[in-house]
Write a structure and sequence with these properties.
By secondary structure, this protein is mostly beta strands. Helices cover about 5% and strands about 50% of the residues. It is built from two helices and 19 strands. It has an 18-stranded antiparallel beta barrel. Strand 8 and strand 9 form a beta hairpin. The radius of gyration is 23 Å and the shape is globular. The chain starts with a helix and ends with a strand.
Length: about 425
């Protein structure tokens, strides 16, 4: 670990010297570096999935150590980001097999003032991160190996995203892709259009995604790619003290099990700033579900969104799986309040009422209620502290579709320190 960090610093210093020399020849060149140490301690007593009767709580400390280098000049941008993530004590005191990996590595070529091409490992973050999100809450984050072709002009933005994944540099045997470990698609083509209205505080986005998932046989390595399409829109309206947003997405095609898909989701949210200190928010999300007897699969899949942001901080839904073959969907009604104590301290309290998206045989639709509290303190410009606590009160329906025992107390607490300075810019 120490050798890898020293090597990364050596590369940073070398690139810094190269950039200084180049800057003398071209004043439009820029080189920058940033670092992040994010440490989070967690107490889990029913997070991600409900705990069963008699299950003891767990505790750990995880950490992200990240070094990011960036370079920009006219028509060219580069970004390299390497990180080590894990749990304190996970590695031996003398470790020869550290997990210091490149989580971002891309180059962007600006063809002219409007068009660009970005190639490599990159984070795909769009709109409110409902379908494609960076998942920064996770210690590792989420990144894609993809080609992005983009257009920016005035209020118009257009991105085409293309990806093709394989397990290794195979010589023969077709293109079977084993996604059992990566949980990735085999190929993906997406088109995203966004427009900022100049005459009104309105933003509009449209997304169309074609996702190819490997449905073949792992033993024979016979490929059988199944294609599912997701299309939808996101709208945001921000007049004065209001922030109003809504989204709708529909899925069709076939899922990885070659089952015909017809599913949808919708969301409406409203936030109002009472004054400089107080805000209130309400919202509702609905993701369609499917019964086991349905010939057509009707459960919506939010794919690669940042689910922690929407469906409760305890991550019961879509950040973790349903059990016993259920795919009941979700209805999530929310209300919350935010209070800004000072310019550096703020807090929020949010309540969620959860129910299944579809009525299941012999089960009540109510899943339970969750209460989430979070306090954020910006200690200085590049150091922040966050503290959170959540509790869930589930029902017998929760036991069936998620496991655990709803009569057991379910709660979760955490504290996180984030140090994220910009080291230098040249």
């Amino acid at each position: 670990m120490r050798k890898r960090i020293l090597s990364a610093w050596a590369v940073a210093l070398l690139l810094g010297q190269v950039s200084l020399v180049h800057a003398q020849e071209n004043e439009e060149s820029h080189f920058w570096a940033s670092a992040q140490i994010r440490t989070r301690g967690e107490y889990r007593n029913g997070a991600l999935s409900p705990r069963g009767e008699g299950d003891k709580p767990a505790g750990f400390i995880n950490e992200r150590a990240r070094l990011t280098l960036g370079y920009e000049r006219k028509k060219l941008s580069l970004k390299f980001s390497a990180q080590h993530v894990g749990v304190w004590g996970q590695d031996a005191l003398v470790d020869k097999n550290g997990r210091f990996i490149l989580n971002e590595a891309w180059a962007a070529f600006h063809l002219n003032d409007s068009w660009f091409m970005q190639l490599g490992r990159q984070s795909l973050v769009y709109d409110d991160e409902r379908i494609l999100g960076g998942l920064d809450w996770n210690v590792a984050g989420r990144y894609h190996d993809a080609l992005k072709i983009g257009y920016r002009h005035g209020g118009h933005q257009l991105d085409g995203i293309f990806a093709f994944n394989q397990n290794d540099e195979t010589l023969i045997g077709g293109t079977y892709y084993d996604s059992s470990k990566t949980k990735l698609y085999k190929n993906m083509q997406s088109l995203w259009y966004h427009y900022d209205f100049a005459s009104a505080p309105v933003k509009l986005s449209v997304l169309a995604m074609n996702l190819g998932q490997e449905g073949g046989d792992a033993e024979t390595r016979e490929s059988d790619t199944q294609y599912m399409q997701t299309v939808g829109t996101y709208v945001q309206f921000t007049p004065a003290s209001w922030n109003l947003s809504g989204s709708f997405y529909y899925q069709t095609g076939k899922n990885v099990s070659a089952r015909k898909v017809s599913a949808f989701m919708g969301s409406v949210r409203a936030s109002y700033s009472i004054n400089d200190s107080w805000t209130v928010n309400v919202g509702t999300d609905y993701l369609s579900g499917s019964k086991k007897s349905d010939a057509t699969y009707r459960a919506f899949n939010p794919l690669y969104g940042t689910h922690h942001k929407f469906y409760g901080a305890m991550d019961y839904f879509y950040a973790s799986d349903f059990v016993n073959g259920y795919a009941p969907g979700l209805s999530d009604t929310q209300i919350g309040v935010g209070y800004k104590v000072s310019s550096s301290v703020s807090m929020g309290l949010n309540y969620h009422y959860f129910a299944t998206g579809v009525k299941l045989e012999s089960l009540n639709r109510t899943l339970g209620s969750e209460l989430d509290y979070q306090l954020d303190w910006k200690i200085m410009k590049d150091i922040s502290l966050s503290v959170g606590y959540s509790l869930m009160r589930g029902t017998s329906t929760m036991d069936v579709v998620k496991g655990g025992n709803h009569k057991s107390w379910q709660d979760w607490g955490w504290v996180s320190l984030n140090v994220n300075p910009t080291l230098f810019k040249k």
